[in-house]
Design a protein that fits this description.
Molybdopterin biosynthesis moeA protein, domain 3, molybdenum, MoeA_linker/N_sf, binds molybdate ion, Molybdopterin biosynthesis moea protein, domain 2, 39 strands, transferase, magnesium, about 25% helix, Molybdenum Cofactor Biosythetic Enzyme, Chain A, about 650 residues, binds ligand LQZAQKY5
Length: about 650
């Protein structure tokens, strides 16, 4: 094995890793002080107590529009004994905020003046001293403490500072983060590159830049550095000589032959941690430089880097800046399916979260550390503790919300078979105010029925053909969900067919071509309506599945099938026309089928479902579906009844 490879030291928990770094932090690692204009101090932390230079108000001022008077000249006023006051001598007209004239001590609101004459007024109520007057220093008294030290400055505080005559305020410097992305394959996004095979667009640094902004940090970045020790060394030295308090080296932290991060951290300082008991995020490296800066080797995979930023960098930044992070918002949610995990490793699982009836439900999203889109699709993140080997279906778990809870309550949880009209529906629902967020999980039609029966989804897209009756969906619901009170609403009638490469090079014309030796098929997963449809047609054509090469190779979505054909992993697969069109494939039509939405009666009045129904009845929506290609909308929005067939 290559001697350059850096095998992990010893993995430790996130808390232990943080402790190791915090132990090493000395005053030399902490941000210094600086003076900033008060109006630019939002989010900064005061480095000392701030005292007022001026009082506010600096004079006795009228709190209301009206007249300024001497209270004592009004004391005898009664309803049956009005007092007449003379302009100039007994009162002066005054507006809110004006100084009270010398000798006056009270303001009568204009509404309380009984009669107004040319040079006098009559009043029927006495005024008491300092009535409707804001006295000197009512809000702020010069020299008083405006803000204590170590106080995070809010928008309101800026108003207080300026009112008290504080033009500049002493604060701690912002924590500075510098990032050095590395990797021969990593392209600088600023040059708007076209990636070739083997190349990747640099994005992790900008995820951190955006996070750093929300943490109130200064941020800087080096353009991506190739995997050459000298170049990396030079970039790191420059970062160490800069104002940054934390230097992050992106990627190159695991065990590859070009992973130099650990070695270079050892050269420039002391290595404290190499390896977390956390997935994703395991290959995180932590150290402290000779000049007391925190060194972080962040994993290259985008999701792993996010975990490293959130779980390690964020607490360190808040520690250095003296600020308190906001408490994460969490909900208790029911896990919709069993999830395995590795004993001894804490796992961060992205989940789709929605409120179905009285409970939150959480559905795990794909776990790949390179799948950044799972973070944008997820409404939440849950942690599987290191001492568990996974979690059972229906377990109540704590989920940290990644979106605002109001947005989570707008999630329409949809399961079942995948269809492009569901994506189209999702896009249209997002146009409502507030937007309805359709979160769909593709588990096939049978999986959809199961989820609805278990109460973990608002609706399911299903298309199950029953060869015996010639009907759709009802025979399966009778059998698998006999007690369910539901409605079945048609979304569209769709065309299924064989997806083949453009020009159909294998000349696949019908199912009869599937048993050919030179034809490799790719199938949908068991329980998928498309697979049931295929089996039915194979049986009708008297073709045994064993004769079809690739029958047991499974994909979970129509697009998955299309990708297999496009990448020549298979020659053909059964799916919808829209998926073939999306990837520029040819399509050999085979059958029409009904794609319905299964909605429990309990949710038919749910606002989100009502919006779906409104859309299904709109002409624009139907036109939109038809423009996808391979769909008919004659039944769209209609309630289906047993025996209707197609
Ligand atoms: N033999 C082993 N191999 C790996 C292990 C292991 O334990 N033993 N751990 C795996 C784990 S877990 C992770 S996470 C990755 C992390 O590896 P590195 O930190 O060394 O990162 P690279 O291999 O250089 O890159 C991984 C991946 O990320 C892309 N990348 C890198 N930088 C960026 C960036 N700035 N923006 C976007 N994408 C980036 C890079 O191109 C790679 O695709 O190691 C496993 N291997
Ligand atoms: O632990 Mo790595 O950080 O999963 O992909």
């Amino acid at each position: 094995m290559d001697s350059q490879r850096s095998i992990y030291l010893k993995t430790i928990s996130i808390d232990e890793a943080l402790e190791k770094v915090l132990e090493e932090i000395t005053p030399a690692s902490l941000p210094g002080r600086e003076s900033v204009p008060s109006q630019q101090a939002l989010g900064r932390v005061t480095a000392g107590p701030v005292r007022a230079r001026y009082s506010s108000p600096t004079f006795h001022s009228a709190a209301m529009d009206g007249v300024a008077v001497r209270a004592e000249s009004t004391f005898t006023a009664r309803e049956d004994n009005p007092v007449i006051l003379e302009k100039g001598r007994d009162y002066v007209e005054i507006n809110t905020g004006n100084p009270i004239p010398d000798g006056m001590d009270s303001v009568i609101m204009v509404e309380k003046i009984n009669q107004e004459y040319e040079h006098s007024i009559s009043i029927e109520q006495p005024a008491y001293p300092w009535q409707n007057v804001r006295r000197i220093g009512e809000d702020i008294v010069a020299t008083e403490l405006l803000l204590p030290r170590n106080h995070e400055i809010s928008a309101y505080d800026i108003g207080v500072l300026l009112s008290g005559g504080i033009w500049e305020v002493d604060v701690y410097q912002q924590v500075g983060i510098h990032v050095i992305p590395t990797g021969d394959e990593v392209l600088d996004f600023t040059s708007r590159p076209d990636p070739s095979p083997g190349q990747v667009i640099e994005s992790n640094s900008q995820v951190l830049a955006a996070m750093a902004q929300s943490w109130g940090c200064r941020f800087s970045r080096t353009a991506p550095v190739p995997d050459e020790p000298q170049k990396l060394e030079k970039a790191l030295q420059e970062a160490l000589d800069s104002q940054a308090h934390i230097v992050v080296i992106g990627a190159g932290s695991s065990a590859g032959s070009k992973d130099f991060t650990r070695r270079i951290i050892q050269e420039k300082g002391r290595l404290l941690v190499h390896g977390l008991k956390a997935m994703p995020g395991k290959p995180t490296v932590l150290g402290i430089s000779h000049n007391n800066k925190i060194l972080v080797g962040a994993p290259g995979y985008p999701v792993s880097s996010v975990i490293c930023f959130e779980q390690i960098l964020k607490p360190l930044v808040y520690h250095l800046s003296g600020k308190t992070p906001e408490e994460p918002v969490t909900v208790e949610a029911r896990l919709t399916r069993k999830i395995p995990s590795r004993l001894g490793m804490e796992e961060f699982l992205r989940v789709s979260v929605g409120r179905v009836g009285e409970q939150y439900v959480a559905t795990p999203l794909p776990r790949g550390a390179g799948m950044m889109t799972t973070l944008t699709k997820a409404q939440g993140m849950t942690r599987i503790p290191a001492d568990l080997e996974g979690m059972q279906q229906d377990r109540m778990i704590e989920v940290q919300l990644l979106r605002r809870s109001r947005e989570v309550n707008q999630v329409l949880v949809t399961v079942g078979s995948h269809d492009n009209t569901v994506d189209f529906l999702a896009n249209e629902l997002a146009l409502f105010n507030p937007p309805v967020r359709l979160a769909s999980t593709h588990v096939g039609s049978m999986g959809g029925i199961t989820a609805i029966r278990r109460g973990t989804a608002h609706m399911a897209g299903i298309h199950l053909f029953d060869p015996e009756t010639g009907d759709y969906n009802f025979p399966f619901l009778d059998k698998y969900a006999p007690d369910l009170d539901y409605r079945l609403i048609n979304l569209a009638v769709r065309h299924q067919g064989l997806m083949v490469l453009p020009g159909n090079p294998r000349n696949i014309r019908s199912l009869q071509d599937l048993p050919r030796d030179d034809v490799e098929f790719v199938n949908r997963q068991k329980g998928a309506g498309t697979r049931i449809l295929l089996d039915h047609h194979l049986q009708q054509a008297d073709i045994s599945p064993e004769k079809v090469k690739g029958y047991s190779n499974e994909e979970y979505t129509h697009m998955g099938i299309a990708v297999n054909v496009l990448s020549r992993t298979a020659d053909c697969g059964l799916g919808i026309k829209a998926a073939a069109q999306a990837l520029g494939l040819d399509f050999v039509p085979l059958a029409r089928e009904r794609y319905d939405l299964l909605i429990p009666e309990d949710f038919i009045q749910d606002d989100k479902v009502v919006q779906v129904m409104n859309l299904l009845h709109s002409r624009d929506f139907k036109a939109g579906i038809e423009s996808l290609g391979g769909y008919e909308t004659t039944l769209t929005g209609r309630e289906m009844k047993p025996g209707m067939g197609l």
